[in-house]
Amino acid sequence: MGSQLRVTCKHCRTVFKACDGGGFFFHLLHCQKCGTDMRVTQDEMGDAFGAEQEIRDAWVATNVPPCSCGGRFTFSAKARCPTCNADDWDASIVKLEMLYD
Ligand SMILES: [Zn+2]
Ligand SMILES: [Zn+2]
To answer: Which of the residues 47, 62, 94, 100 has the least number of beta carbons within 10 Å of its own beta carbon?
Structure first.
């Protein structure tokens, strides 16, 4: 399970959707440059899935290919505004939707 947030960009007020968090079976990463999201599943990660943050970061650095924009996916990166590329947004209008796939 993850949640889909409806967020407002603090810079240009664009409203867009962002995925947040991960679930029992996957972690959600974002590209540091463009904010594209990418999932890594428990099957892919194996023991690293439930490991400490440093181990998970190391696993991602080794196993997850770079984004098509050239950026890297990390746990700490956030979704970005599709209009101005800011990662500074307000999730006060929150709509939780279950992700079923
Ligand atoms: Zn990217
Ligand atoms: Zn924006």
So the answer is: 100
